[in-house]
Amino acid sequence: MRGNLRGRSARGGVAAICGVAFLLFGYDQGVLGAVIGLDSFRKEFNDPDRHLEGVIAGIYDIGCFLGALLAFMTADRLGRKGSVVWGTWIMVVGTILQTSATENIQMIISRTVTGIGNGMNTVNVPIWQSESFKSHNRGAMLIIQSALIALGHPLSTFMGLASRQAEPSSFGWRWPIAFQGVFMVLILLGLPFLPESPRWLVHKGRIEEATSVFAILSGNSVDDPQTLLERDEIVASVEEEKKLGEATWGEVFTEGPNRNISRVLLGAGPYMMNQWSGINSLAYFLPITFERNLNMSTELSLIIAGVLGVQYFFVSWLPYFFIEKVGRRKMLMGSAAACSFCMVMIAIMRKVNTVASQWVFVAFTFVFFDVFSLGILPVSWMYASEIMPLRTRNKGVALGVGSHWLSNFVVVFVTPDAIDNLEHWLYVIWAVLNASFVPITWLWYPETARRSLEDMDEIFRHERFGLTKTRSPGTRTKEGGDGVMRRDPEAILFANEKGSPHS
């Protein structure tokens, strides 16, 4: 690591680079929908039918799935930061191939390559960030990143709208795709100046480096009591895990004292809720959804989609102010219930299909994006990395992200045909799925707000798989009167009951 970033500037640097990566995630999810309806794109690729549209859009998610699996195999060796470097360079190659595409097969291959790089980053960026921030502000930082995902959608839509002025030149669709390279350059320029995850360094036995990173992130000296307390907590946790031996892939799929398979299943859940809410059935194809469902012009569809995206971005900031107080569970359940109601109304308006109902369809699409951003969006990207044990965290999160992208592929692949063939029943399906997320969350998902990663280890060691008893946010605060971080009393109680060395 080069440079003199310390304390707030170091944490800000990590947050900024993670933010650019999340902005890139959002931009990538929206950019194809912004250009696929342009005449220049359709002419270049021989006017693809609904099935081929689904393949071109969905193959990116297959690439993301493969990238998540690649992260599963390599990230523990490469490190959090090193894995982001590799993922971003792979995306650079894929973007160059996409921008220069002249045949369907080249576009399909290049979107797969880009997806592989993005899949690696979607595993490692949330882990790197969660392991670099303390529990009292980790959730708030991830809210900011979720808002930046939301910002990527209107940015890609307005980029498509602006480049439409270049029609019939192929520049009209090539430029929005090439523009994602700007984000990649920013990531690659910023990473050398930022620290590796201190928890990963401890896991690799590089204690001195980890102590230095804890000091850099806190702005304290390496012998400050707070720095040493943070380091010792992580060291104790890692030593306890290492008593069980080196982590293997098979370990992730067994329960054991750390409840690994339980955590994998619970961590994958919010990622899958994200996709099976129906968000990307709308987001990937928002302009053409308005065109084909409501008979709008391409230009009007892009404008409305862009305005919706801007509102989505601003509303997605709101959880920053209350996610740690309210907690992940209540936000996830409330968001899912509201999303279900919106999908019911969208389905009814699609069935009625009058001029008035079409605009009500648009209005409830706006509301759907808003309520999605208030719960499902932020929780889905933070929950897995908050509950996985350190020794298997990368593998567990990789499986969760893999489930996200595989679900995304299925949703995106079927949507173009479903818009035409299922009509209003498509939205009924999303409504039922959203409603099911409420009891699932209430029954099985422990609350992670205001609890450290080590607190969650104690909670999972105490609770067996089944109905969770941890339904309220923890009480860990920024610091006590003596400047020392206070642990969550509930986790300490669990630790004492189990005779843990972390108590």
Description:
- The chain is mostly helical.
- 75% of the residues lie in helices and 0% in strands.
- The protein contains 24 helices and no strands.
- The C terminus is likely disordered.
Compile the SSE list and pairings.
Layout: H1 8-35, H2 39-44, H3 50-78, H4 80-99, H5 104-130, H6 135-163, H7 171-178, H8 180-190, H9 198-203, H10 207-218, H11 225-242, H12 249-252, H13 260-276, H14 279-283, H15 286-294, H16 298-315, H17 323-326, H18 328-352, H19 355-373, H20 376-387, H21 393-421, H22 425-444, H23 453-462, H24 489-498
Please provide a brief summary of the model.
With 503 residues, the protein is an all-alpha fold.
Summary tags:
503 residues; mainly alpha; 24 helices; disordered C terminus
Number of strands: 0
How much of the residues is beta strand, in percent?
A: under 5%
Structural class: mainly alpha
Order of helices and strands: HHHHHHHHHHHHHHHHHHHHHHHH
The oligomeric state of the chains shown is: single chain
Termini separation (Å)? 34 Å
List the total number of helices.
24
Instruction: List low-confidence stretches.
Output: 478-487, 489-503
Radius of gyration based on Cα positions: 23 Å
Overall mean pLDDT: 84
Gross morphology: globular
Largest sheet: none
- Portion in helices: over 70%
